[in-house]
TrEMBL record:
Its EC number is 2.1.1.-. One of its GO terms (molecular function) is methyltransferase activity. It comes from the Bacteria. The keyword S-adenosyl-L-methionine applies. One of its GO terms (biological process) is methylation. The lineage of its organism: Bacteria, Bacillati, Actinomycetota, Actinomycetes, Micrococcales. Transmembrane segments: none annotated. InterPro entries: Cation-dep_OMT, SAM-dependent_MTases_sf, SAM_O-MeTrfase. Keywords: Methyltransferase, S-adenosyl-L-methionine, Transferase. Coiled coil: none annotated. It comes from Microbacterium gawkjiense. This is O-methyltransferase.
């Protein structure tokens, strides 16, 4: 029987690599650490993005000169803090959260991080809240990290509320490899539908990357509104 190569991407190895990259490139931050700790303390699911992904969102916002960011799925505001810190003083994040308890935890974490004045947390299901944003200034960056069954709804609104040049990031598009399956449940069906939309909808140009980190095997899609 063949033995695994010492550098095969087994969980112990990718955890070590994730720890190394995180400790090398991500400085410790009390507010971000408190945001993560609040999930367990408040009974929220511990499904925030990994630190390296949080900084990727932060850098994408800075690289694109974003002033207005839309986030669909706030949870405990970990990614929201990363995004808000990337914006100029007059910048704004609008973050949508379906669960009132999550929204309350998020607001406390945003206050602790000193960015509450840049973030508006809107409570309600995305499909209900998003239409109310129509007619405002376009968003420069959209981060989609909510119920996967609604990805095509969220992508449609990302294009409608964005502009040519808006960057759209969709989280959790690999689902531990289940994305290749056609009978893996509603969440995977939603991810596949979203990826097909990014392929077929002329409003988007997109790619996707697999990730291996402390959150396991997953990935992100990154799209440009054209």
């Amino acid at each position: 029987m063949a033995h695994p190569h010492p550098y095969d991407p087994v969980p112990a190895r990718w955890d070590d690599v994730d720890d190394y990259l995180t400790s090398t490139l991500i400085a410790h931050d009390d507010a971000l650490a408190a945001s993560i700790a609040s999930l367990a303390e408040e009974g929220l699911p511990e499904i925030e993005v990994a630190p390296l992904s949080g900084k990727l969102l932060h850098l994408l916002a800075r690289m694109t000169g974003a002033r207005r960011v839309l986030e669909i799925g706030t949870l405990g505001a970990y990614s929201t803090i990363w995004l808000a810190r990337a914006l100029p003083a007059e910048g704004r994040v609008v973050s949508i959260e379906a669960e009132p308890h999550n929204a309350a935890v998020a607001r406390r974490n945003l206050e602790r991080a000193g960015v509450a004045e840049r973030v508006e947390v809107r409570e309600g299901r995305g499909a209900d809240v998003l239409p109310a944003l129509e007619g405002g200034e376009p968003f420069d960056l959209v981060f989609i990290d909510a119920d996967k069954e609604s990805n095509i709804v969220y992508l449609d609104w990302a294009a409608r509320l964005g502009r040519p040049g808006t960057v759209v990031v969709v989280d959790n598009v690999v689902r531990s490899g289940h994305v290749v399956e056609t009978d893996a449940g509603a969440q995977v069906d939603g991810v596949r539908a979203g990826l097909a939309m990014l392929r077929d909808d002329p409003r988007f140009e997109a790619t996707a990357l697999q990730t291996l980190d402390r959150k396991g095997w997953d990935g992100i899609a990154i799209a440009l509104v054209v």
